[in-house]
Design a protein that fits this description.
Mean pLDDT: 80
Helix content: over 70%
Low-confidence stretches: none
Order of helices and strands: HHHHHHHHHHH
Number of helices: 11
Distance between the termini: 25 Å
Length: 238
């Protein structure tokens, strides 16, 4: 299946213009960077891995998933998404075009967070290897949230379970002392990213983080399948 670059570029251009008009999107980008600065000032050997990876995970959840969800939901609210869905543009062209801005914002925020927090001890190659499927996961989840929401404001509420599970779950699940919940949290992308970073900080290489990469890649495949299935369903029922 060939992708039309003209249609893809047109969708990206439209998303870029819409993003410039939305100040809320910019706010979701600033928060992880500010947190990175706060963490950088407190950085020492006793800081936990979860604390070190928090800005990156916040960028994935808040910037990547939330921005994607808000942009999709805003299109639904304006009744322009259905028009785009029923246009000659293929589903992959629409999804790629509508994900481009959120993806670029996420990459910029993560690079800024990485530099501001001063966590350059983490090998960049290994970090990229696990961040690529992670970004795709949250873009897919953001698209799902946007498709399930009626308005941009509603998408913020719908995204709360994702934020609580992936961002807060690893920090607070042990305190709840629920064995099943703790066992499940271990396999979240957030926890696997922290596990990979922990291995790399101890001198591990990309080969040593194969298990987190495999688990995160499985999440990526499942989220993509769910996203495409929901998109095709919503294409005709609005």
């Amino acid at each position: 299946m060939m992708i039309s670059m003209n249609r893809l570029n047109a969708i990206i251009a439209k998303e870029y213009k819409d993003a410039l008009k939305n100040s809320t999107l910019l706010l979701t980008a600033v928060i992880p960077i500010l947190l990175s600065y706060a963490i950088g000032t407190q950085m020492n050997e006793l800081v936990s891995i979860l604390f070190i990876t928090l800005p990156i995970n916040m960028a994935l959840v808040m910037t990547c998933a939330n921005v994607q969800a808000m942009m999709i939901a805003e299109e639904k609210e304006k009744h322009t998404l259905r028009v785009l869905m029923l246009s000659p543009a293929r589903p992959m062209e629409v999804l790629l075009g509508k994900s481009f801005i959120a993806m670029m914002m996420t990459v910029i925020v993560m690079v800024a967070s990485y530099m501001v927090a001063g966590i350059d001890r983490i090998p960049l190659t290994g970090l990229i290897a696990i961040l690529i499927p992670s970004i795709i996961i949250y873009l897919a989840l953001g698209t799902i949230i946007g498709l399930l929401s009626r308005t941009a404001m509603e998408s913020s509420f719908v995204s709360m379970p994702v934020m609580l599970l992936f961002l807060m779950g690893p920090m607070y699940a042990p305190a709840l002392n629920i064995e099943l919940l703790t066992s499940l949290i271990v396999y979240t992308p957030t926890e696997q990213l922290a596990a990979a970073v922990g291995i790399m900080l101890e001198g591990g290489t990309v080969a040593d983080i194969w298990k987190p990469i495999v688990i995160v890649s499985a999440w990526m495949a499942a989220s993509l399948v769910a996203c495409l299935a929901l998109y095709r369903n919503k294409r005709y029922d609005g």
